[in-house]
Structure prediction request, 345 residues.
Amino acid sequence: MLNEIPKGYSSIILNARVMNKDFLKVLDNKRLVNMRSKTRIMWTALKIKTKNRLRRILSIVKTWNFTKSRRGSAIMQNLFYTKLMNGCYLQTIDSVLFSKLRQNQIIRKGKNIINKLSINSEYKVLNGAFKGLQYPSLDITESALVPKIVGSYEYQLQPWLHRIINTSYSDIIDIGSAEGYYAVGLAKRMPNTVVHCYDINEKDIEFSKQMAKVNNVSNLTWNAFCNENTLLNFAYRGKTLIICDCEGYELELFTKTVADKCKRVDFLIELHDVINPVISSQILSIFQYTHTFNVVNNKDVDYGMLTGLQKLSSKEKEFALFEHRGGLYKNVFMEWAFLTPKESR
Prediction:
């Protein structure tokens, strides 16, 4: 627990997406009194009145020097997802500061596997709803790139994806669209639907534009930050779907006002209880009067129908099917909710 952290190892931060008020509660906790100078740095960052203040905190903390000793790593690992206050979860240095080293290892091995699977250097999805979707290159920082190419990524969503593709949506809003796996994949399968991509990562937006071009897809728009006002002021034309994968920000994004405004909108939301365990209960509570919902998780997924992996060894197949959530050969428990309106349009 927090009071067991040895001197010199107390510099722990919350995920940059955790709500401000939760972050303030953690910093206000008297047990953190020994954080001293580093706490003051975080307080200074919090006083910056911008939407990016939590990301600024993260960027500041990433500049601090921490030991890479085995003892230090073990201490941080023992603190992984430790519950602190009111559902706030701590993250260790391994999951935040050293994540780039871990991610590079996953990406490097993943690219070697993808090159074995590709034909004529064309990186196409092999299975699932987006079979045939082509990636323009492997020049992207994405630890789940192999399962996306295999078509096993978030495979438990396949029935819902086919249902979405067979629905006549006028618009799909993809919040946290990343490099474009879902956005371009759906736009390609649904040429009469406009897919609106929202992501704060400019490199991911640029990559998704390249993916759209190589797949001859033009029914997309690209946007940066999406907040509550974005959803409240969106020009809803007909049947609309909102897809959300925004690392815990869904708790701030989906308010009761949004639920009421979007009472005729479908939702597919990834629930990041791994960041804040109250997210799923609060999200479903907010939508309980306007929507019905179904929830699936990533336990006991059946990959028996996948094809195209004959060139891979058994160990490579195992690696290819892992989404490496939480690290190399690690998958944290995740849930998704598909919400449909109680009131028809």
About this structure: The longest strand covers residues 291-297. The radius of gyration is 21 Å. DSSP finds 15 helices and nine strands in the chain. The chain has two domains: 2-97, 100-341.
